[in-house]
Amino acid sequence: MGCEAASALGLRVAVLAERPDDAACAAAAEVVIGTPFVADDLEALAAVCPVVTFDHEQVDLDLVSALAHAGTAVHPGVAALELAVDKVRMRTVLDEAGVPVPAYAVVESGEAGHLDPRAIDAVEAFAAGHGWPLVLKAARGGYDGKGVWPVEGLAEAEGVLAQVGGQALIEELVPLDAELAVMVARRPSGAAASWPAVETAQVGGVCREVLVPGRIPPHVVEAASALGQKVAEIAGAVGVMAVELFWSDGSLLVNEVATRPHNSGHWTIEGAVTSQFENHVRAVLDLPLGSTTPQHPHVASVNVFGGPAGQDPALLLPRGLAVEGAHVHLYGKSARPGRKLGHVTVCGDDAERARAAAWAAAVALGTPVPEGIEPPGTVRS
Amino acid sequence: MGCEAASALGLRVAVLAERPDDAACAAAAEVVIGTPFVADDLEALAAVCPVVTFDHEQVDLDLVSALAHAGTAVHPGVAALELAVDKVRMRTVLDEAGVPVPAYAVVESGEAGHLDPRAIDAVEAFAAGHGWPLVLKAARGGYDGKGVWPVEGLAEAEGVLAQVGGQALIEELVPLDAELAVMVARRPSGAAASWPAVETAQVGGVCREVLVPGRIPPHVVEAASALGQKVAEIAGAVGVMAVELFWSDGSLLVNEVATRPHNSGHWTIEGAVTSQFENHVRAVLDLPLGSTTPQHPHVASVNVFGGPAGQDPALLLPRGLAVEGAHVHLYGKSARPGRKLGHVTVCGDDAERARAAAWAAAVALGTPVPEGIEPPGTVRS
C-alpha cells in the first residue's frame, strides 16, 4: 500500500524482500532480494535508495544504525525504532516523560530455559500490589498478540517467563472501556499531524476491525490525538507512527507504539483526505504533510483473514465486490487459515450501515467471524 | 494508475512496454518488453495474462483480433476498439444508430502526397451547406488534438488533405457553450454505470482542466450520462469508455470516444466512490462494478505539463504538496516542455476554491498557464 501511494506521486520504491514472490515486490518499482539482518543486503538497498524506511519493526538496530552512519537517510531513526522494537524501553521512556501508561515493572527473566528466580519474586511483588490476572510481555519480537501473555497466577507466570528469556514487562490487566489508536505523521523538522483517534477491536491481540469514530466521544478523540502527538514527539518519530491506547474508567493509557503505517490506519486510504501511506512517504522525504481530515462522518474497516479451508480471497472477489460501497484491499499474500490477507473499508453517514457492509464484504471474501465480535445485521451465517 | 488500482485489489498486472524505463513498468507487477505492432510481443504478453486490455488505442486491429481468436480474453473487443481507432467508423456507426453528432461528411483524400481531386469537391460541397470555417480530421492516428485541423478556406483544406492520406472527416465547426465528457464502465454482460458528466477545458485539443460539475446544469449532466451509456452500448465497450461531447445551443453532440481510462476521468480517483481505473479493472475481469457516486459537491482536476525549462515536477513536490487539499499525481515520465506529466485533483464544497487550489498546485509543479484559461484567484504570475 505504501508502494501504491508512492507510485501516485511518481516516486520509485525499491523493497528489500526475502523472496521475489513476496507480495510487496509486485507493487514496487525495484526489488532487492535479502533480509534486514544481513549488512550486505541493507547496503544493496541503500545503494539504490537515498531514503530508507520500514514497514515492520523486526530489524537489527545495530545494522540500521550502521546504515545511518554510512550516510543513508534512515527514517524513522534508530532512537525512534528502538521504542517500537523494545517494549521495555518504550514503557520506561514514555513513563519517565510523564505519558500515562499501565502500571508495570521490568523483570530480567534470565536466559531462555534458565529462569532467574528473582523474576518470580518480582511477579509476586507486582501481583501483591495489582492483583491477578496480570499481563507478561516479552521486550522484543512480539506483534499481533504474539509475545503477550495474560496470566492467572504464579505458576502460569513462571511457565511463561521460563520460555521468554531476556527482559520482560509485568503489567496490570487494564479493565477496558475501549481500545483506541491514533496515527501521527511527523516530519524531520517536528511538524506533525494526526488523524482522529479510532476505536479498534482486537481478538487474541489481533486487530479485527477499526471504527471511526466508533464509540469514542469527541473529547476523548481530541485527548487521544494530543497524546498521540506527544508520544510521537517524545519518540522523535519521522514518518507515521501508531499509538495504541486503552480507554479505561475515563482515562487514556498508552499500550503499544509502532513507528510505521499500521493496521489501525488503513481506513485513511478512503476515509481521510490523505492516507497514512501517502503521509508516511511525504514525511520520510521531508515533503509537506497532507490533510488528515476525515472525509465521511463514519468509516468502518474490517480485516480479511484466511478461512479454515484456506481459500484465496482473490477468487471470492465476485462476491466481495458485490457489496455496495466496499473498498476491497487484498495484499496478494498466499492464503492460509487465520492469515491476515487484506481489509475492507466502507465510508458513509451511518455507522451501523458502514460496519455491516464492511463485515458483509469481509465475510464474502472468506473471513470467519471471530468469537467476541458481533457484526451488525445478519452477517453471521 | 491502472496498476495502482489493480494492486489494491491484490491483482497482478503485466504491461507491454517498449522500454524498461517506461513509466508504467515501475507500477506493474511484471513487464513484457515489446510493442503492440509485433505479433510475437502480443503473444508474449498473452502468455502471462488471461485478460488483455489497453491504455491507448494506437493498436493494430488485425493483430488484436488474432490474439482474441487464439483464445485470450481481449477487453474491449475489436469491434469496440475499431470505433476508438477510426474516427470515420465512429461517426458513421453512431450517426446510423441515431446518436446526435456534428454534421459531417466522409472524404477519400487518396494516398498521402497524392490528393484525390474529388476530396476538394467534397469539401467545397460541404462548405456550401455549412459555411467556413470547418474541421478536417484524419480517420486514424490522432490524439490530444493531433490529426484535427480547423480550416478557414479551400486552399487551407487542400493543404491539409494533401498530407493526411486515406479517409478523413469533414465536420462543421460547432459553436460551443461547453465541452463535456462522460465516463462509462461496462461489463461483458452489458451491466453499466456512468460517472456524472464533467466539464472539460481544452486548449489546442489538449485537455487542461476538468471541473465536476463545472458549469453543466443537472438536467444536462443527466442527459449526457444517458447519452454516454447509449454510446457505450452501441460500441459494445467492455471496461471504461470516455464519451466527449459538445454542448451547443441547448443540444448535446458526441465529438470523440475512447475505449479506455481517460484524462477526463482522473478526477474519479479521489472524487468518486470508485475510480475509473478500479472500475476498468473490475469490468474487464467481469467483476461487479463499484459505485460511481461523487464524494464531494465539487471537484477540480488540472493537468500538470512540463514548463519551458523542462523542469521535473518531482523536484517541485515540496511546493506542489504544500497546497492544502491538493492530490498530486505524477506519472513518472521524463519531463519535456509541453508534455503531460501528471495531474492535481482538489475536492470540496466550493467550486472556485477547489479550482484555485488545483491550479495553484499545478503551477507550483511547473505547469504554464495556457492562453485561453483564466484560473481563479491570483494564480497567474
Give the helices and strands, then pairings.
Two copies of one chain form a homodimer.
Chain A: H1 2-8, E1 14-17, H2 23-27, E2 30-33, H3 39-48, E3 51-52, H4 61-69, E4 73-74, H5 78-85, H6 87-96, E5 104-108, H7 117-130, E6 134-138, E7 148-151, H8 154-164, E8 167-172, E9 178-186, E10 192-194, E11 198-203, E12 206-212, H9 218-235, E13 239-248, E14 251-258, H10 268-271, H11 276-284, E15 298-305, H12 317-320, E16 327-330, E17 340-348, H13 351-364
Helices and strands of chain A, in N-to-C order? Answer: HEHEHEHEHHEHEEHEEEEEHEEHHEHEEH
Please count the helical segments of chain A. Answer: 13
Examine the secondary-structure arrangement and name the CATH architecture of the largest domain in chain A.
2-Layer Sandwich
Q: What is the CATH first-level class name of the largest domain in chain A?
A: Alpha Beta
Radius of gyration of chain A: 21 Å
| Assembly context of the chains | homodimer
Mean pLDDT of chain A: 94
Could you please say which CATH topology of the largest domain in chain A applies here? D-amino Acid Aminotransferase, Chain A, domain 1
Strand content of chain A: 25-35%
Low-confidence stretches of chain A: none
- Report, as a whole number of angstroms, the end-to-end distance of chain A: 31 Å
Gross morphology of chain A is: globular
* Domain unit count of chain A: 3
Sheet with most strands of chain A? 9 strands, antiparallel
Extended strand count of chain A: 17
Q: Report the helical percentage of chain A.
A: 25-40%
In CATH, what is the homologous superfamily of the largest domain in chain A?
Answer: ATP-grasp fold, B domain
- Tell me the greatest interface: A-B, 37 and 38 residues
Helix/strand/pairing class of chain A, anyone?
alpha+beta
